[in-house]
Amino acid sequence: MSDSKKNYANKLIELIKEVFEENEWKYKFDEEDNTISFTFCGDDLDMDYIFSINADMEHILLYSILPVKIDASKIAEWAIAVNHANNGLNRGTFEINAERETISYRMSQIYCDSIISKQVIYDMVHLSNLIVDHYNDKFFMLAKGMINLKDFLEKVK
């Protein structure tokens, strides 16, 4: 990795911290992993997030592992539910990790030869928050058997 890529990645971490401090959002910085983690309270469930920077790929990643444990024996049903939710998104994607039996939301931003502003970081956080908060309760209800797949599909039209 070039020094310029590493330096810009470090500047981006500092920029993310500035956005959080300006908005009085609490966060934890992990120096070893060079990640920023934070939690927001949604309408019904807390939402945990992690920002990471891949300096080699010049890529910002913001992701959230939803507080939902999926039943791996119903992976086809979960694939339909996640695909249906993704069809309504204009940014980011939900993903299934069958091995860990989890669902996560991921939003990324490539910054090759670009200048990333505080507004870009703010918008990533804000939009991710809106999306995860809108869907996490529906995924939770499906996981707990409170609704079936048909009900889920109706709720996420």
List keywords for this structure.
157 residues; alpha+beta; Yope Regulator, Chain: A; 6-stranded antiparallel β-sheet; 4 helices
Protein model, in words:
The protein is of the alpha+beta class and 157 residues long. The protein has one domain (3-155): Yope Regulator, Chain: A (2-Layer Sandwich), CATH 3.30.1460. Helix content is 42%, strand content 25%. The chain contains 4 helices and 6 strands. The protein has helices at 3-22, 75-87, 118-143, 149-155; strands at residues 28-30, 35-41, 46-54, 59-65, 93-97, 102-110. It has a 6-stranded antiparallel β-sheet. Strand 2 and strand 3 (46-54) form a beta hairpin. Helix 1 (3-22) packs across helix 3 (118-143). The radius of gyration is 17 Å and the shape is elongated. The N and C termini lie far apart (44 Å). The mean pLDDT is 93.
